[in-house]
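Progress against Task 2.4 (sequence-to-structure conversion) is shown through the following example record, which the project officer requested during the mid-term review.
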Amino acid sequence: MNQPAILAENIGKQYKIGLREKANKTLVESIAEVFGSPWQRLRTLGEKSTGDDLFWALRDVSFEMQPGEVLGIIGRNGAGKSTLLKILSRITEPTTGRAIVRGRVGSLLEVGAGFHPELTGRENIYLNGAILGMRKIEIDREFDEMVAFAETGKFLDTPIKRYSSGMRVRLGFAVAAHLDPEILIVDEVLAVGDHAFQKKCLGKMDDVSKSGRTVLFVSHNMGSIRRLCSRAMLLTEGTVSLTGDTDTVVDTYLSGFEQYATENLSDRTDRGGVGKVRVTGVEVSVPGASPETALTTGGPVRFLFRFDKLLRGMCCRFTIVDQQDYKVVHFNTSTTSSEDTADASLGNAYVCEVDQLTLAPGRYRMNVLILTGPELQDYVEAAAAFEVAPGTVGERFISGDTPAGAVCLAHRWTMGTVD
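Structure tokens generated for the chain above:
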């Protein structure tokens, strides 16, 4: 029987809140740390942890992957996914347990990971290949295909520090996927690229998996997880809550959003952003009707957002997501219309009204995001959930047994007749 390509046994990772993780340092940095701040080092050694400042990012995580298997790791923000990948990639050490990884590993965990900013794109390709243990002749063989995939040939002799984030991601993925790794580890970093590049990367990952290499993939895109992964693992607050066939694990994960959507938004801690503005409540209703009135396909709907305060230039965005985790429609206050108005009586609230809701009957949830300029203030997944009952669009009744699709459009047919 083949030995597992990856074996994780009771992995735990503990952090001290407020301290940065010690990364690999250069010799110069290590010497500077020893001699440049001896008193700070003595103070640090003398400090004792109270227990309240310790945080377990992972606890007792155990699993194994056979050679050629494609495993998807899913979970909410803060579940420990990225920490686990860093341990498997040897970027950080576990506090407890051990990870055995058999084979050459190609990792893409964050923008520019593994690149030296002062070196050119060409130099970084050869550097990464050498780190993976490849000979120059092996890197030469893949070089042209790698550069063509990344679409960075024009900037190949430019230092990486001058690359945009998108260029770094393209080159980083090309290096990780083409330098013949036996194990490919990819985090959600692909979300930085544009749609065409994401599609190309997913295609390449599919090719890599079909060639018999082992792939570990972390993503919030459940469609990609379903498409690429033969098995999935769900992390919840640093522990493995479920491992099994992909559809079962993904369905379990998505059903958990219903629970989050019923919680008081002011109590939710699983959110992103710097927090100068927070969403405190979301209400979905039929305009002018009682709160219990059902939403229907083709009927009107009113979305009300409450905030703890308003800031000048604040932008509110929300996305409606269906039960298959597909983003159906997106709303954004920064795309203006002559019908938009201001109403001081609303207080710290925004209202979005839709005259005809063309969603098919079913269950949906809302992700809400607040920006001020480029700065993310708040992001809440599953801020609210709602049900849409069968209704009428363009005089055509839309029942609850729609075979596919989440959107219904008013339409008409012209049909030939039978003699």
